[in-house]
Amino acid sequence: MKKTIVVFGSSTGTCEEIANTIASKLGVEAINVTDFSADTIAENDNLILGTSTWGAGELQDDWYDGVDVLKNADLSGKTVAIFGCGDSESYPDTFCGGMKEIYDACKAAGANVLPGVSTDGYTFDDSDSVVDGNFVGLALDNVNEEDKTEGRIDAWLEAIKPSL
């Protein structure tokens, strides 16, 4: 595996915990998006980017500066995987919507964004993060489906590892 880093934005600790789980399973470092910079991008071949979703499908607050870093970077030659946390029961119409802004910024900057997971097995009404029937990354509902989180992470990592 090429040099990889996990970058997360977390307000309540859930996304941070998931980021640390992913980083541990890959044997890499996880950092808060508040520490994310152009140097982070330059030093890594692969970026695994995670956000929680707030309000009407918005990014976690710290990610707004992180998205600016992505928009101002040349990500060609970089591989990006995205994960997001949401609450499909309380916010079924914006579930994990925060991933979409990161996805759009990475695509526009030329990154190879790895495919996300199928919406099969998820219960929600709508999400900006669904493109062509799949999420743009790994969607997790650790509030209502905590029992599925570990299995979803493992299946996603198995799917993306060959590309990292």
Report a brief summary of the structure.
The chain is of the alpha/beta class and 164 residues long. The chain has 5 helices and 9 strands; from the N terminus they run βαβαββαβαββββα.
Q: How would you characterize the largest beta sheet?
A: 7 strands, mixed
Instruction: Count up the helices.
Output: 5
What is the total tally of β strands? 9
Structural class: alpha/beta
Helicity range: 25-40%
Report the C-alpha radius of gyration, rounded.
Answer: 14 Å
How far is the first residue's CA from the last residue's CA? 5 Å
Shape: globular
Whole-number average pLDDT? 96
Beta fraction:
15-25%
- Weakly predicted, low-confidence segments: none
Compressed to H and E, one letter per element, the order equals: EHEHEEHEHEEEEH
Report on the architecture of this protein:
- The chain has 164 residues and is α/β, with parallel strands linked by helices.
- Helix content is 32%, strand content 23%.
- Helix 1 links the parallel strand 1 (4-9) and strand 2.
- Helix 3 (63-71) runs parallel beside helix 4.
- The protein is globular, with a radius of gyration of 14 Å.
- The protein starts with a strand and ends with a helix.
